[in-house]
Amino acid sequence: MKTLDLMSLEWRLLRRDRAFWLTTLAAVSILVYGFSNGHLWMRGQTVRITEQVLQDQQGFKELHHLAEKFKQENQVLPQGLEQREGDPRYALGFAANHHQYDCRRPRPLASLAVGQSDLTSYCLPVTVWGVEGREDEGNSTGLENPLRLLLGRFDAAFAIILLMPICILVISYDLLSRERELGTLPLLLSQPVTLRRLLKLRFGLRIALFIAFCLLALALCLAYSGANFTDPRTLVEAALWLVITATYLLFWFACAFWVNCRGGTSAEHVLQLAGLWLLLVVIMPGCLNLALKQIYPSLSRMDYIDKVRGTSVAVEKKKSALLGKYLGDHPDLVAGNKKVNTDDYIQSRILIADETERTLAPIKSNFRQHYAKQQAFVEDFRFISPAVTYQHIANILTGQDGPRHQRFLDAAEAHHQALRAFYFPLFNEDGPNFGAYDAIPTFNFKEQTLTLMVKATSTALLGILIPSVICFIIGMRRLQKPLFELG
Amino acid sequence: MILTIAKQEFRGLCRDGRYRLTVGLLLVLILASTAFGWANYHDLIEQAEHAAEHDYQRWRNQDPTHPHNAAHYGNYAFKTPRPLAIIDGGIEPYIGASLYYGAHQPSEVAFPPAQDATALQRFGDLGVGDVARALLPLLAILLSFGAFASEREQGTLRQLLSLGVKPSSLLWGKALGIASALAVVLIPAGLFGLAVAFALSPAEYRLDEIERAGLLGLTYTLYLGIFLFLSLAISARCRTARSALTILLVFWVVTVFALPRGLLDLGARFYPSPSSDFEKAYSADMNKETEAHVDKVFKKVFAQYKVSKEEELPFDITALYMKASDEGSLPAIDRYFNKRFDIYQSQNRFLEWGALLSPAAGLTLVSMALTGNDLEQHRDFVQQVETQRRNMNNLMTDYMLQHQEKRKEGDELKGNPALWGKLPPFVYHQPSWEVALKPYYIALCILGLWFLMTLLYARRSVTQASLF
Q: Which residue, among A114, A290, A296, A364, would best test binding to B if mutated, counting the most B CBs under 10 Å from its CB?
């Protein structure tokens, strides 16, 4: 029998396979619903970030304008430094009133996976005195329903990881055993066609159609949602995402193929595939999470609060001693020597900020290192389950991963340090003539390079593809055995 | 007859190596997650007590300073977990166990542990509650999908019925046999829950905790009963074990994993979570109402003293301003607080009524309520902290009002440790189980309805199965 004839026969059968079409329709609907949820979340973030950026720009313009107006009108100079904080002609006043929010913008594919982004602040107010809301109260997760955070979002990534394997199970668990149970297998094999060829074609057709429908639906959703495919980076990221998704779905078809080739009844196939799903999607990741929590238990945030509060009290108490030492080192800044230093207000504030940051640095660094260890553990063991591998890479490709957030925090911290380096010398020599507006450091966040993304995706691809190929090979070898051995 | 069938069914299951393996694995999982939960519970208790004690001591040992500065320094309120949190941690990882309270307005939750965790947490913790909610129903399905369908395929169902065995006896016998097999996992877990509740609860709410543990056990039993009877019904309805298993597995995945998430997301479409507009409106309203109230108070005082400016008053008006601004902000704080939690509640209603489609959705809510980790008890905690915050601010402003004589520049009013000590340490008063469960009566009733309906459906299906 020619391949084309066989294909035509299979196609005729598939056309009448209501379970296949209904399941595929359900899968596509689930994906579209998941995508729309993710898109809603992404749109909310984008709107908020855009508002924030506009507000910052507007604020800057107004402040700039006010400073120039005060200068032109020769407004009366403020008496004390505290009043100076309200006057934008001074660096101190400009810094105090120039509000800048550093925002982590969603990547173009962010609608596909919410990832960890609903748990972390994506806009942080950064000032010369610190980065607010990073680890302090008032983070942006404060307004989300905690139950929603617990259950997680029904996004496309969730649908692919958890629900698509079940759809694949439903359409492929009995592709061979059904023929055997109906007694049509001997009849089918009486034709000039081998079981291997028949099964390859049967699976091939379903794999191609199912994956094509799912990916097409998602690609259309992406296009409809406004993803800019003319941008080469977005295009490559989307291509990588589609490839890795196709591979993940292929893995589950490979499992179904292997189970079909093992022989046994359809009920046994359902049990085996469901068991595999349970093991790889629920139990293994859950156990990995449990192991992670025991090997690297989260550091106590209550202890952290305790230390931060203790530090702020201790630093405040040490203020006089610190100031004495500081002014000993910098006699030029002793009050009265300079016109601008009518009191020790600025020095005190700088010292308190410095000392607090210095004391808390090791504690914050501990949290950072601890998270890095946890992340390294996940990366080391992600290949124990294709679901974990897929989740890991999907978060990276959509820009919703923890390490990206850490890079964002680092960039915000670097911005804050740059502001300190820029403003602190000006504060000490402050006069009503601040005009270096263009030199004010701005936020600079660099995305991970595309090469690294391609590398990460290739590793993940191998991690999912190798077990898939093994399943197919074992299945094929099994089919070489005589028919009666197949159960 | 029923007992004979039950014994036979139970013996048959026990002989099955797959059953022994599954039960063994489940017990190991439950034991492991319990041990981890136990260690975590002890850590949390210790940390919370330690941090609360330290923070309060720091508050009391503050150097003399202006009372309003002291209010700004504020305090942290810590919530100690209930022992049943070992079974179901609920929303705790997403809200944390501490809340700062200081001057002017309540703060948001701080340092939720979930923020420090990796993306793996989205797969779940495999805690005792998760195992019971997700894996035990699967065990119920696996034990019962073939109860009638396999007998029919093998031709033994007809034989059994021809011997005069009543279909209903067959149903009760099989249900009892399978329930006994499930009890091998359930009874140790239930007894353990009661023991934990008894051993770890402080004496003042030990009885409440034991009652909660008992109710939790009953709710999970009801939930498993739903899966058991539904599986028996489907098994009786389907011609083959294959189709029975496929239908049940799809039902399990959809109702346990997909629907709870999907329903809550749907709820958020109808009742969107508060956005930045909400925050802006809150801020604007609070400022507007505070200013209006302060103006009103000032006008009254000015009229009383027949002056037109605050400088003309015989006393320093700062304290009065603080008091008035605190009072003026309260209606907006209360209104927006309620509005925000009402939005969450409306979203959660989708989950509650969604229990009509997914029993797991209803169970999630009830289980969290009974273990003290649901939204309503979090709301109660936040409200109690807010009361403490207001008491603290009242204490500070009252002191300022008592010392509102005009001062020279540099002569700042200062509170002292005696004043700080007047604020008692914050203690969270946990609600009783009746109060905790009240918001979820609908979910509980729907679970009961599910049980009843599946039971009737099983009975009807078995009666009809006898026709095949």
A: A290
Across the interface, whether the CB atoms of A309 and B55 are under 8 A apart is answered: yes
| CA closest to B340 among chain A residues | A143
Domain ranges of chain A: 1-34+154-487
Q: Is B16 on the interface with A (CB under 8 A)?
A: no
Residue that is written with structure tokens 């190991």 in the block: B28
pLDDT in tens, chain A (487 residues): 677 888 888 889 889 888 899 999 999 999 999 999 999 989 988 988 898 889 889 999 998 898 888 888 877 777 766 677 788 888 888 888 888 889 999 999 999 999 888 888 888 888 888 887 654 434 444 578 999 989 888 999 999 999 999 999 989 988 888 888 888 878 877 777 788 888 888 999 999 999 999 999 999 999 988 888 888 899 999 999 999 999 999 999 999 999 998 888 888 888 889 889 989 999 899 889 888 888 888 777 777 877 777 777 777 776 656 555 555 555 544 444 444 444 566 777 777 778 888 888 888 888 888 888 988 998 889 999 999 999 999 999 999 988 898 899 899 989 999 998 888 888 777 678 888 888 889 899 988 889 999 999 999 999 999 999 999 999 988 887 765 555 4
Interface ipTM: 0.89
CA B421 to chain A, closest CA, distance in angstroms equals 17
Set of chain A residues whose Cβ sits within 8 Å of the Cβ of B122: 152, 391
Contact call for A289 and B124, based on CB within 8 A:
yes
Say yes or no for a CB contact (<8 Å) between A305 and B98: yes
* Among B40, B118, B278, beta carbon nearest to A374: B118
What is A344-369 written as a DSSP string? Answer: SHHHHHHHHHHHHHHHHHHHHHHHHH
Cα gap B98→B107, rounded to integer Å: 11
Q: Could you give the count of Cα atoms lying within 13 Å of A414 in the half-sphere of its Cβ?
A: 11
Number of structural domains chain B divides into: 1
Kindly report the number of other CB atoms within 10 A of residue A430's CB atom: 24
Q: How many Cβ pairs closer than 8 A exist between chain A and B?
A: 230
B96 interfaces chain A, CB cutoff of 8 Å: yes
Q: Are B58 and A287 an interchain contact pair (Cβ–Cβ within 8 Å)?
A: no
**By the 8 A CB rule, do A366 and A135 touch?**
no
Q: What is the 3-state secondary structure (H, E, C) of B226-241?
A: HHHHHHHHHHHHCCCH
* CA atoms of B398 and B125, how far apart (whole Å): 48
Can you tell me the distance from the alpha carbon of A11 to that of B242, in angstroms, rounded to the nearest whole number? Answer: 24
The whole domain housing B122 covers 2-465
Contacts of residue B32 in chain A, CB cutoff 8 Å? 290
